[in-house]
Write a structure and sequence with these properties.
The protein is built from 10 helices and 9 strands. The chain is of the alpha+beta class and 287 residues long. It folds into 3 domains: 101 residues, GMP Synthetase, Chain A, domain 3 (2-Layer Sandwich), CATH 3.30.300; 64 residues; 96 residues, no CATH class. Strands 5-6-7-8-9 form a 5-stranded antiparallel sheet. Strands 1-2-3-4 form a 4-stranded mixed sheet. It is elongated, with a radius of gyration of 25 Å.
Length: 287
């Protein structure tokens, strides 16, 4: 690549290439040694060239191996395994810029606690119980903790209590109270939709799926629709259950949508308590 082209490379980043065809032999070599494919994470440099208007794969490659067996290996065992992995790497990238890093496996206890905290933080923020600044501060603090365990191999035990402390501190900083204009006659109050959803959660009302025709469990990353007590609810689903109400139509014809809810108290689904949200998701997935 010419010097001029290199000057046009404004953006350089490391991107995941673990599943790329040219790197699959490395994963296969790992598996041949009795190690799971999930132990390997391969990242390769990507360079954006403005003149060519495309990405070029850069020379820098990092292969992270995170497994209890490799972490316990002695130096000679790691050298032997590294030689096998390098032999399986694409020849054009198997040079001094390819680095293999042996990382300490993260305890399931830590992973579960950290992911649960992230989930709780997002839910509290969507409920408008945590200010934007407090949310960002907590997210950064959780990220720093995870870096200490994930990248620096620090013992997770003493850090576990700090997860709860971060969430507690975030909850001490709710957003400022907002005043909302009167609801237009054609609009739906957020509390009305929450009441409908709560009837689903407690089992006093049963939803009927309108779309997709083959059932809610077949919907993926899209908007589906169900009816309940003469209400029509369109909801966005990513992987499981639902994430938020996209639009609601009352039996008398009044409507509300994502934008109108966001301009007031928040999305009706997001404002429900965790157990209510989870119950609705479980019910929808059975339809």
């Amino acid at each position: 690549m010419s010097a001029g082209a290199l000057e046009g490379n404004d953006r350089q980043s490391m991107g995941l290439v673990t599943d790329h065809a040219e790197w699959k032999p490395v994963v296969a070599a790992l598996e041949s040694e009795g190690l799971p494919a999930s132990a390997a994470t391969i990242q390769q440099e990507h360079r954006w060239d403005r003149e060519a208007v495309r990405y070029f794969m850069g020379p820098h490659v990092e292969i992270d191996i995170r497994d209890a067996r490799t972490w316990a290996m002695n130096e000679s065992e790691r050298i032997e395994l590294e030689a096998k992995l390098r032999a399986a790497a694409p020849p054009e990238w198997n040079g001094p810029d390819l680095v293999i890093v042996w990382r300490r496996p993260v305890a399931e206890e830590w992973a579960a606690a950290w992911l649960d905290a992230i989930d709780k933080l997002w839910r509290e923020w969507r409920r408008r119980r945590v200010s934007n600044d407090a949310f960002e501060n907590a997210r950064e603090a959780l990220s720093v903790l995870h870096h200490r365990v994930w990248d620096e191999a620090e013992d997770h035990g003493p850090l576990l209590p700090k997860i709860g402390e971060i969430l507690t501190e975030a909850r001490r900083h709710p957003p400022a109270v907002r005043q909302f204009p009167p609801l237009p006659p054609s609009g739906i109050d957020v509390a009305e939709v929450m009441d409908v959803l709560r009837r689903i959660a407690n089992g006093s009302a049963r939803p009927q799926v309108v779309f997709p025709l083959n059932g809610w469990r077949h919907l993926y990353h899209g908007v589906g629709e169900f009816t309940v007590d003469d209400w029509s609810i369109e909801a966005f689903k990513r992987n499981f259950g639902m994430k938020y109400v996209q639009e609601a139509r009352a039996p008398d014809g009044r409507t509300g949508d994502y934008k109108s809810f966001a301009a007031r108290e928040g999305n009706p689904f997001s404002l429900l308590e965790d157990d209510e949200q989870d119950a609705i998701c479980e019910i929808l997935e059975r339809l």
